[in-house]
């Protein structure tokens, strides 16, 4: 473990101890991606965000692929990390459609979108969408992406 990793791991441990005393379930955390998130320290995904071990390679690739004014579909958006990153990449000209099937996680996704005052992300509870529409047709860009 290098010094930076040790620092972030120590920060996570201190937060965990503090939350026990404060009897709070959530913290508002400014991520290294530049936005704030409501996080719970009892979830592994949230801990990985704090310790900066959350899908770093995938996120770097995502940043290379998503361009200004793109339309991004985030299926299984969870708490919104990729949706929030995409929001900054596509700017005001683009749009992000975020789908999350879990009702509780969907609420957290919406809270994170509101926390950052994001306007170009539209969220949908996937279960509700499936009940509304029968067939869903998604057109995918057929041009190969060269990195």
TrEMBL record:
PANTHER family referenced in this protein's UniProt entry, alphabetically: METHYLTRANSFERASE, FKBM FAMILY PROTEIN, SLL1173 PROTEIN
Organism: Tenuifilum thalassicum
Gene Ontology biological-process annotations: methylation
Keywords of this entry: Methyltransferase, Transferase
One Gene Ontology MF term: methyltransferase activity
Name of the protein described by the UniProt record: FkbM family methyltransferase
Gene3D superfamilies the record matches: Vaccinia Virus protein VP39 (3.40.50.150)
Top-rank lineage group of the source organism: Bacteria
